[in-house]
Amino acid sequence: MKEMYKQFGISKKVLAFGEEVAGELKERFAGIDETAEYNQLKVLHAMQMCRVSEACLGTTTGYGYNDIGRDTLERVYAETFHTEAALVRPLIACGTHALAVALFGNLRPGDELLSISGRPYDTLEEVIGIRPSRGSLAEYGVTYSEVALLPDGSFDLDGIAAALNPKTRLVAIQRSKGYSSRRTLSVAEIGRAIAFVHERRPDICIMVDNCYGEFVERIEPSDVGADLIVGSLIKNPGGGLAPVGGYIAGKKEYVENASFRMTCPGLGAEVGPSLGVNPALYQGFFLAPTVTASALKGAIFAANVYERLGFAVLPDGQEERHDIIEAVTLGSPEGIAAFCRGIQKAAPVDAFVTPEPWDMPGYDDKVIMAAGAFVSGSSIELSADGPIREPYTVYFQGGLTWPSAKLGILLSLQEMVDAGLASV
Ligand SMILES: *Cc1c(COP(=O)(O)O)cnc(C)c1O
Question: Which of 47, 184, 280, 289 has its CB 3.0 to 4.6 Å from that of 39, i.e. a possible disulfide?
Fold first, then answer.
């Protein structure tokens, strides 16, 4: 084993340190495997209930009318997440697009969108118009307000009660922290906030941005009252195999509203060819529970490695997990660069390139991204990224397999040690 790691340039000291940390995580990992087992049965049962057949693995082109694979897959998602309906489409380009489709489909001029988990994910700022942008909800006369989370990261119920007003039509909750330094919300906690809003206003649509959260717990926000859950297929639910796509699952009325935005009024979910991706979307969803477990193990390993070396990590090494992201604050641009170099060196694709910060569409600061993925930009695959801004935090996620995630963390540490930024 030592020889194998040596081939990758891992020193004896770094390896010994890593093995010590990994050794202490065995019990924790057994718990993760149990969650994966539960969720595997959930997905498999849904596939059987929906009578997934060989015909579902076929494809359509053009209008895509009566695409049995597409329609059945949408029922599989709905069955798994316990919702009335779902859209699962390669036509949805990414998570931001899925969220925008859900928002535009369910908001009308004069309505107000209320975010109760503070500032939403960076790319949504332009969708909403928090940062002025062409075609935003703001341009269509949809107003926006937000209630920040309390300093301890919990929902500000008094603030939420005060912010609800007759115009409030849709309440948004973001489960994962995204590029911020708050904690990730648990499904149970999200459920209590949903109940609080629905007690006051049962007519409001509550949408949860579920990105990076799928299959981390045994329940999803749709099990605790969310009207819509939305996510990306190049994160957890795509299982690393989906080449593109997003999903929107929830109440039939709200999913249909979204469908008329996804294509156009009148056509909705009836059109949209699957273009050959059905097998990957099915198989990816089938693998998603165990792939998510691998990514979780990587995140917990990273937390424990860097915590022990004195870096601020979020969540900390012991905390219960609600998403697959690990934030490690490295304190300098050099630290972020070294960490990302290590992750890149563990990739199956493009391991020989060096990540550099650049201006990315939808983001305000320069962002550095390490990813050597089979699916471009996939962040269920081993990846690390971070905006180049104080306090220089890198967000690490993914790993289709636990051993590859482990290698990535060890290589990141080796780069840090070699640059004199950490010592073991
Ligand atoms: C990834 C992510 C999104 C959407 O991102 P895309 O890159 O457009 O897929 C939205 N919200 C959160 C919290 C995310 O992590």
Answer: 289
DSSP-derived secondary structure for 8-67: TT--HHHHHHHHHHHHTTHHHHHHHHHHHHHHHHHHHHHHHHTT--GGGG----TT-TT-
Six-digit token pair at 177? 């922290």
Domain boundaries, the chain: 2-40+289-418, 42-285
- Write the DSSP assignment of 52-71 as a string of letters: --GGGG----TT-TT-HHHH
Pick from 67, 119, 63, 113: nearest CA to 88: 67
Q: Angle at which helices 278-308 and 12-23 pack, to 10 degrees?
A: 100
The residue whose CB lies within 8 Å of the most ligand 1 atoms, and thus the one to mutate among 232, 367, 396, is: 232
State which of 89, 103, 123 you would mutate to test the pocket of ligand 1, scoring each by most atoms of that ligand within 8 A of its C-beta.
123
CATH of domain 2-40+289-418: 3.90.1150.60
For residue 94 and ligand 1, the question of a CB distance below 6 A is answered with yes
Q: How far does residue 71's CA lie from ligand 1's centre (Å)?
A: 25
Taking the domain 42-285, which CATH number applies? 3.40.640.10
Ligand 1 contact, 209 CB (< 6 A)? yes
- Between the alpha carbon of residue 382 and those of residues 75, 199, 208, the distances in Å are 29, 41, 25
**What does DSSP say about strands 366-371 and 383-387: parallel, antiparallel, or unpaired?**
antiparallel
Q: What is the pLDDT of residues 279-294, one digit of tens each?
A: 999 999 999 999 999 9
pLDDT in tens, 360-410: 877 788 999 999 999 999 999 999 998 899 999 999 999 999 999 999 999
